[in-house]
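ESCALATION

Customer reports they have been waiting on this structure for their group meeting. Please prioritize. Original submission:
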Amino acid sequence: MTAPPNGWTALVLAGQRPGVDPMAAHFGTDMKALIPVVGELMLNRVLEALLDAPEIARIVVLAQNTLQLRAHRDLAWAVEEPRITFRTSGPTISGSVLGAVEDPAIGLPLLVTTADNVMLTPRTIGEFVAGAGKSDVSVAFVERGNLERAVGPNKRTWLAFKGGDFTGANLFALTGAGSVNALKFWEKVEADRKSVLRLAAHFGPVLMVRLLLRRMTLTQALAAAGAKLGASAAPVVLSDGRMGVDVDKPEDHALAERLLGAARG
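Update from on-call: job pushed to the front of the queue and completed.
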C-alpha cells in the first residue's frame, strides 16, 4: 500500500499500565518512554524515525500523563514540532487506539507503534507501509532465524507456525473499517497477548488445534483470526531482524544499546 494523499498518521503508544513500571523504576524514571538508550530518550528515537519517513504526515503521542512528557527538557523540541501532537490515553491500549480511530480529527489510515520500538528506522517504516496491502489490519513480524542472525540467540515471545517461528515487531497498520472490530475484540483479550495458547483459545477449538499442530502458516493464521472478528488481517514480515527487539527488560536495554552503539560506529 502506498501512502495516502495526505500521508499517514502515526500513533505512538508512550503510556504504561497501572502501577509502578518495573523498567522505569529500574532506570530511575517515572515513565518507560523516558528511559535513555545510548544517551537518547527511547521516545525521541521513535519520533525521529517517524519524522524522517516520507510516508508519515503527522504523529500523535498517546500517554496517560502527557503533561510529564511535554515538560521533559529532552522533549521540548517535540512539543514545538508542528507535526507532533500529544493526546491523553484511556485505561487500555486497544481502547485508546480505538478512540483515536473513531476521532474524526485522527481516523484512518493509522500506523501504530510503541515508544520502546527503538530499532525503528525510516527504511523499515517504508517497507512496512509498502507491504501493508489491502487488509483492514496489517501486523509486522520478524522471523526467528532473521532475528538471531542480526542479534544472536535471544529470548522472545515466539509464535510457532507452519513454516517458521515469528515474533511481533510493534508495528501495525489500521486501514479499513474492519479495524474497529479488531480493536474491540483485542480490548477483551489484551491480557492474554503474550501467550499464543491463551490467545488461540479466544478463537475457538478448531483454530487452536490447527495452531498447536502447526497446520497453519502465519498468513493463514492471521486471515483465520481476522475472519473470526470481522476484519481482514495479514502479516508483513520485515527484513531487519533487529526489529524483533523492544525494550521490555534490562537485558533488552543492554542489547539495544549494543546494537545502536554499533550502528552509530
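Sent to customer with the following note: Residues 250-264 form the longest helix (15 residues).
Escalation resolved.
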